[in-house]
Amino acid sequence: MKGAGLDHIPSGDFSLYDHMLDMAVAVGAIPEPYRAIGAPLTRYFAMARGLQDPDSGVDVAALEMTKWFDTNYHYIVPELEAQQSFRLDARKILSEIDEARALGIEPRPVLPGPVTFLLLSKLAPGAGKATTPLGLLDALLPVYGELLRLLGAKNVPWVQIDEPALVLDLNERSKQAYRHALERLAAGKSRPRILLATYFGALGDNLPLVAGAGLDGLHVDLVRAPEQLEAVLVGLGPQMLLSVGVVDGRNVWRTDLDVAHGLVRRAVKALGADRVLVAPSCSLLHVPVDLAAEHKLDPDLKSWLAFAVQKIDEVRALADGAGREAARGPRFDETRASLAHRRSSPRTVNPQVRARVAAVNEAMLHRSAPFDLRVRQQRARFSLPVFPSTTIGSFPQTAEVRAARAAWRAGRTTSDEYDLFLKTEIRRCIEKQEALGLDVLVHGEFERNDMVEYFGEQLDGFAFTENGWVQSYGSRCVKPPVLFGDVFRPRAMTVEWSRYAQSQTRKPMKAMLTGPVTILQWSFVRDDQPRRATGTQIALALRDEVMDLEAAGIPIIQVDEPAIREGLPLRTRDAPAYLRWAVEAFRLATSGVREDTQIHTHMCYSEFGDILDAVVKMDADVLSIETSRSKMELFLDFGRLQYPNEVGPGVYDIHSPRVPTSSEMLELLVRAAEVLPPSRLWVNPDCGLKTRGWPEVEAALANMVEAARQARAQLAGETP
């Protein structure tokens, strides 16, 4: 960033795991079970991942984790006590300022703001309902004030306080919290200047909360919400700087510099050049680092893209051109040529796909019979016990599996040799599942690198990077494909692996697909047509795959949609239209099968309460969800709505290396059976097992199967 000529360079945006967890540590919000862990780094990772240490006797589960607004980044949910006391620990923040200065950089520290921090936190179990996290604001604000004074004493000129919750629908209590918090922060003495950062949407009716607070600057996202600029220019405080986020921090396409320059010029004309900063729309955490590291991308496609390094160059070019009415220069000329080429490229359009989309009708969106009739045929076909046990799909991607894939991709082994290796792994996985006593088996997904990339590689309209990694959670990264054109399935993608797996067992085999909304959400999606149109194209390709799996004799097909909640618009008024087409895309993909073919779906790390009506309309026969980290709290919504189909609430956290006991899992099943009858409950982990090792997986699954046996005895009257 310094080399590109940026004037404001952040510090504090790096994290060993998650920036919300960092802030929890910085304000002393360490839940009681972790306080006895003396080593700070061990304690930090115990909160993030859990810790099971026989030598010390420490056995703690990880804190809850969920999605950061409408992104695929996961944050650790701070857990607060009803009488929480906060205490500043600024070591990380201050040390990173010192590190930046040693490199010749005067940084702008970035902090999650106090109201967003509390709105995204939860109260510890047993805290009661006497307060809410927001009720702790007065206890938290003095710690922020102390931190600002420390930064002022270090002569830090600017601090960035992130309050993305300001783009949400806020109730009056939350608005009052913002009035109170922002005025307190602004009134602090000997503090740095404060830039309040919002992103992912428009301030809308929350703009007055910021404009009159007395802060020094405001950042707004003009990629997601360019329409808010006029209101912001009118409502901005008379001395405030405006940071205009005109370069997309969420997607990989080149910025239309002419459009962005127009927005910058409108701000400059209204405020003057000395009151306008040019910036990305949000943190560049959500895009890959450097397009120059891509050596295999098609040159035409590559010319349409910009990764983080290229985006900061775009920021600099826009800042340099802010004082000129007409945008000019080599970068502007190059961008115009690239955008014109992309708009006219035949690679983005497939007439056959578009004709098929136009032919979709209402009948294609519905199963041939309601669930009550389907479930009778499915139970007769499978003869499963109450509390049937299964997994979400993937099994450990060991070093051997990754090495075999790398050798095949590099041409060091033949396709026949690689296929033999994969079939051996599938067979071993099935044998392990049968030995453990699981009721419905999966093939393990050893042939798959990623649940989206694998499918994208076999569909027309996708391209792939070598190094386009982005963080999902902790040290786990994903490499989203680039969805640049109309989507078409040239051939079957998974059928042969599922057919082979079913031939190795008499137990029902579950085939695994990634759903249309998740493929859409977890790709860098084209921005030249509505997302709904792209989602329908993907759904049609998956519909063909589902029908081929059924024809191959696969009795259960799981179409995962973990990202459907993630895609929900942040403003309530925009949600119905999205949920309508998202549900239709899932049903288009899954509704062509017979009544006795069972359709599963999986969702994880999301708050379901506000989309549960839509989940019901998806009409999956079985829904598996993540509930272990929240101790079944998320499951209560299913009871309140009287969810009509079958559900597998996750009973152990696969993102933690600890092995839960069968009694822990049984306790969760008991709670689940208080919400829905045992006849409609399945038993499964909360997500896939690809990131774990075999020893812990086998131990945990053995405990899970034992918990299912005990649940049958205690809750369904069956003999274990």
Blueprint (SSEs and pairs):
Elements: E1 9-11, H1 19-26, H2 32-35, H3 40-49, E2 51-53, E3 58-60, E4 65-67, E5 74-76, E6 79-80, H4 91-102, E7 107-112, H5 114-119, E8 122-123, H6 137-153, E9 158-162, H7 172-187, E10 193-197, H8 207-211, E11 217-221, H9 229-235, E12 241-247, H10 257-271, E13 276-280, H11 299-302, H12 308-320, H13 330-344, H14 351-358, H15 371-382, H16 399-409, H17 415-436, H18 453-456, E14 460-463, E15 470-473, E16 476-478, E17 482-488, H19 495-503, E18 510-514, H20 516-521, E19 524-525, H21 531-551, E20 556-560, H22 575-590, E21 598-603, H23 612-618, E22 622-625, H24 636-641, E23 646-649, H25 662-673, H26 694-715
Parallel strand pairs: 1-7, 6-8, 7-9, 9-10, 10-11, 11-12, 12-13, 17-19, 18-20, 20-21, 21-22, 22-23
Antiparallel strand pairs: 2-3, 4-5, 14-17, 15-16
Helix pairs in contact: 6-7, 14-21, 16-17, 21-22, 22-23, 25-26
